[in-house]
Amino acid sequence: MTPLTLAEARVLGTLMEKARTVPDSYPMTLNTLLAGCNQKSSRDPITNLDETQVQEALDGLKRRSLAFTARGSRVDRWEHNFQRALVVPEQSAVLLGLLMLRGPQTAGELRIHSERWYRFADISSVEAFLEELRDRTEAKGGPLVVQLPRAPGARETRWAHLLCGPVDVGAMAAAVEERPPEGGLAARVSALESEVAQLRALVSDLATQLGLSPPGHPESNDRA
Fold it and tell me: Is the dihedral of CA 137, 161, 37, 58 positive or negative?
């Protein structure tokens, strides 16, 4: 498979996340997918993609058989085809999806962040699947993750995905060291803003399907 662009990886990871965490709104429309890609929580780096960039990413994923449109819908809805295309089990797909969305992480962080996706029995189970992805033979497509050097003072090493091609291991390890810790008021505010944006996108899609003007649209105000 040719390497993914950063936008394609973000779109693919978002499809994989929402399929598991909000199945009622999956498959996803362009609007809800855009909001999910640009949300401020559970993302590293944070992006500001526009509709054109997301659509181009979807087209690129479709050419690779990694995403496709669902049938029988008035509005185009997209879903991923990650596991079949790469021939990986559910557990490996979850780890790769999290790495695409959140950047390099330790096995312990991956286990915590995967709670809403899949419940791993323990850290050893996470490590076993990461090692399997790292040791994939060329006949199966080659490695899909790389283990970064241990940071000074760190107890665990971090892992990064290779779906966007080879990485500069040294530079990525240094960038991870400088990353601010998650949590705090700013992180909670960002998470709430992201949820509001996704809810607005969902309401807008529902209004379109029902033939109504989206909330805030001049026509909806006139009816009121």
Answer: negative
User: Mind giving me the DSSP string for 80-121?
Assistant: E-HHHHHT--HHHHHHHHHHHHH-SEEHHHHHHHTTTT---S
Domains 1-86+184-209 and 88-178 share a fold: yes
Q: Is residue 69 helix, strand or coil?
A: strand
**Fold held by 88-178:** Arc Repressor Mutant, subunit A (1.10.10)
Task: Specify the CATH number for 1-86+184-209; select among 1.25.40.10, 3.40.50.10490, 3.10.20.600, 1.10.10.10.
Answer: 1.10.10.10
Q: What CA–CA distance (Å, rounded) separates 146 from 122? A: 21
Per-residue tens of pLDDT for the chain, all 224 residues: 899 999 999 999 999 999 999 999 999 999 999 999 999 999 999 999 999 999 999 999 999 999 999 876 678 999 999 999 999 999 999 999 999 999 999 999 999 999 999 999 999 999 999 999 999 999 999 999 999 998 888 889 999 999 999 988 777 666 665 555 555 554 455 445 555 655 666 666 666 665 666 666 555 545 54
DSSP state of 216: T
Q: Give the predicted TM-score (pTM) of the model.
A: 0.79
